[in-house]
Amino acid sequence: LSATPIPRTLHLAMSQLRGVSLLMEPPAGRQAIITEVVQWNDTLVKEVLQKELGRQGQAYYLHNKVETIDLAAEQLRELLPTARIAIAHGQMDDKQLAQTMQLFDHGEVDILVCSTIIANGLDLPRVNTIIITDSINFGLGQLHQLRGRVGRGSVQAYCYFLYKEQRLHGDALDRLRTLESNADLGAGFKIANRDMELRGVGHIIGRNQHGHVTPLGINLFEELLNEAVEELRTGQSA
User: DSSP class of residue 119?
Assistant: First the structure.
């Protein structure tokens, strides 16, 4: 598992109802992404992006509100007037979006202000910094997937999960601290396990991808399910 599967899929695998393979060997030269959870401020954003551009790299600035993404890009232009900044999101005209991504791919754009559209399999080795604004609004698996858009080559990559609140608390705090403490290569399986604990395991039969096991607890639930699976297997063998 290089990314985080939905809780139901992982649960089926851990219950021995489906097979699972763990990919623990990273590609040659790949480095763990340095991850920080930080309260949002202009100074930090400017310093982080200047550092990336200073080493001739590129960056993602993820702002997932299409209605204010132009404003976010303007604010970045004020902070970094010499940077070449473009916008990409799913509501753009297909031709315009393709042209923007081509410019970014060719190194003619320094910073891409974007929505979660970048989660769809982009592999750009020159992009090695990602700033995710309002990170408390994303799920654990989604944040891990977005972090994986940088560090695609041998250059050290950086990921910054920003939040605007005075204090983090509850599940939001748990999600971000989980990512911060599990930034090593091959951490996807541990993150997926934590995601399953936070969201529940879902329905084995049915469409629901997650659910609650709080009354039983994940360990007891697993034990009872494993017993039921073993009983079915024994009965079939007999």
Answer: G
Residue type, 166: Q
Tokens of 156: 């050290």
Q: How far apart are CA 237 and CA 25, in angstroms?
A: 37
CB 209 within 8 A of CB 8: yes
Return the residue matching tokens 């608390």.
169
Euclidean distance between CA atoms 127 and 104, whole angstroms: 9
What global pTM score does this model have? 0.76
Name beta bridge partners: 35. 159
CA dihedral for 126, 132, 138, 144, sign (positive or negative): positive
Helices assigned H by DSSP within the chain: 7-14, 42-54, 69-79, 94-105, 140-147, 170-181, 188-199, 218-237
Tell me: the pLDDT tens digits for 74-109?
999 999 999 999 999 999 999 999 999 999 999 999
Rg (CA), the chain: 20
